[in-house]
Each structure stands twice: as structure tokens, then as C-alpha cells.
Amino acid sequence: MAKCPYCDFNSHVAASIDQDRWQRAYLSEIDRIGAETRGRVLNTVFFGGGTPSLMQPELVAAIMDRIRATWPTANDLEVTLEANPTSVEAARFIGYRNAGVNRLSMGVQALNDDDLRRLGRLHSVAEARAAFDIARNTFDRVSFDLIYARQDQTYDAWRAELTEALSMAVDHLSLYQLTIEQGTAFGDRYARGKLRGLPDEDDAGDLYFLTQDLCEKAGMEAYEVSNHAQNGSESRHNMIYWRYGDYAGIGPGAHGRVTIDGQRYATDTGLSPANWLEQVEKTGSGEQSRSAISGADQAAEYLMMGLRLRDGISLARYESLAGKPLNTNNINRLADIEMVSHQGDSLRCTPNGRAVLNAVLRDLLPD
Question: For 318-332, what is each residue's pLDDT tens digit?
Fold first, then answer.
């Protein structure tokens, strides 16, 4: 296992994993959070971050058994697991299905071997295709990720690659523009002027709109800025984030938003897997912090997450959280230049607005 140079997610390289020790910690955390949220219906489970498919299927099964014993679950419970497209991980797919996973998300990232190497990926295109074939024969729902606006990537090359991806896709694609984050290997190279061939803002915009056009024509319209799906196949777990629902975060580097006794809290955990494990064993809790979120901050989070969605937000819900409405003049000004659409209680970004979402948010969020 290795860490990709563009990744700012919480991922760590480990020589070995004590599955039994991790199982005890995860089950302990489920028990702790379950006691605080007793009786609430659980709709989704997501095994993500790092490389969860390094988990043995038996560990996934033990976690799912404890989850079902702790909360009432929806009849259509969605259980997603992230996996890299390698033969080692693909060999476990049937075990994950038997453990209760019913949706797989694969980090393919590119359908070009040279670019896979540039991105620090350890698989080849051939391996990705082989793993994907196993996945779609094992799970009814399969998604995979691609990164575009890569170094030296042309408009025509991305058109061909995305067309190929759409011919492979089952029901969902996540398509992310390459962003250079501080604190990553790519960020360090970029700061030293050694990351060449990245598209400028105009070229990146052209790639974004090409992505929207091709996916829409293929029946996989964007339901969120970077996510495309056939109607009804949206990631229900991620929709909870974007609709600003409650979710519990368990494991190193996990964040949560949980409402307890009418107060919404933000929770987080330490990034280091070894430190998280030791903390759970010593203190009985993996949380690093828990802080109450003010109404104004809840409203801002709701706006930032909800406007990523094609369906947008409820203005009444924003006002209920913030204690005051959004500035009508700002909304009207953005509507006049066709960045947002305002109909009744609904505020949503237009396709042009979603392309420059950060700028829209800066205009809408109160100082």
C-alpha cells in the first residue's frame, strides 16, 4: 500500500493490520455511539477513507452484525465499501458481499497507464478493468472514480477517456477535477514549479462542461457537482452529507454531525490509526473533539453542502437554522446573471453557477 501524491484524505501506509484488535475497537465505538442515538433508524453505512478493502471480510461482517444489533435499519439499507482495483482486493469482493456490502466504489482514477503512474496509482488499466468486471458481476451497484484536468490532458483525450468510462459504467460515476492541495506531494511539487502541464482555468472549465455534456447525453446527469448517476442510483450515503443530515463518524480521521437532545454537534477523531486505536483502548472513546454547532454555522454548512446538489436547498430551512433569511438582494443579483435559480422555497445553482460554486457561496454567505 502507498499514499497517492495528490491525496489529502486521511491515508496511512501500514506493514500489517491486527484485524482482531481493530474489530474490538470498532465494536466498542459502535456501542458508545449507539447508546447516544438509541432507537434512531440507520439508512446507510460507508466503509471509506484510506483503503477499507484491506479489511478482512470477517471484520466487515462483524461490524455489520453489531450495527444491525445496535440500530433499527432501513429496509433498503445501503452499505458501500471503497476499494482499489487490484487483484488482491478484488479477491475479497464475494466475501464483502456476503458480509452485507451491497454497493462498491472503486478508485480507478484514470484509464491511461502513463497517467496512473503520474498519479501514484499501483494498478494498471488492465487490472482496473479486470477488477471492475469482478465487481459488476458481484454487486448490483458499482461506482468508480476518475480524475480529470490532469497534466498534459487534452480536450479530445478526455472526451475519449470519458466516453470509454461511460461505456463501462454500471449506474454511478464520480468525476473529480484534479486539485492541488497544500501538504500533499503534488502540492510540494507545484510550489517548487515542478508540476508542469496543468490546464489553466479556461481549459479546466472546458473540460468540466464537456464532462457534464457527455454524462447527460449518456443518461448519467450530475446530481451533485462531481457525481453522476442514473436516476435512482445516487449515492444515498453522500446525499445525507449534502442534505445536511446526521451521520456518525467512526475510525481514524472520521468526522461526524450528530444531533443529541436537540443540539447538533461536530465530532472528529485523530488522524493517526495507531493513536486512534490506542485512545479507544485506553479511554473508551475515539473522539478527539466534540463541539456544539451554532445555528449560524449550521446554516452556513447547510448552504455550502446543499448548493452542491442539482436540487439545491430550502430557503425556509436555511432561515430556521440561521434565525434570519438569506440576503434577497444577493440572491436576485446572482439570479440576474443566471448563476442561481430561485423558485418559491427552492434555491439552486444553475449549471453555470455550479461550475463556479465557491464564488457563488462567497456572494451568498453573510460576512
Answer: 999 999 999 999 999
Using CA atoms, how far apart are residues 258 and 133, in angstroms rounded to an integer? Answer: 37
Cell matching residue 272: 493517526
What is the distance, to the nearest Å, from the Cα of residue 194 to the centroid of all Cα atoms in its chain? 29
d(CA 213, CA 218): 9
Cell of 54: 484491506
The partner residues of 141 in beta bridges, in order of sequence, read 103
- 45's CB contacts (< 8 A; 6+ apart) are 64, 67, 77, 78, 79, 80, 237
Residue-wise pLDDT for 26-75, tens only, equals 999 999 999 999 999 999 999 997 666 678 999 999 999 999 999 999 99
Q: Please state the separation of Cα 265 from the chain's center in Å.
A: 20
Q: Which fold has domain 296-364?
A: Arc Repressor Mutant, subunit A (1.10.10)
Helix pair 295-306, 315-322: axis angle to 10 deg: 150
For the structural domain made of 19-241, what CATH number should be given? 3.30.750.200
Question: Which DSSP string do the residues of 204-263 spell out, in sequence order?
Answer: HHHHHHHHHHHHHHTT--EEETTEEE-TT-S-HHHHHHHTT--B---STT-EEEEEETTE
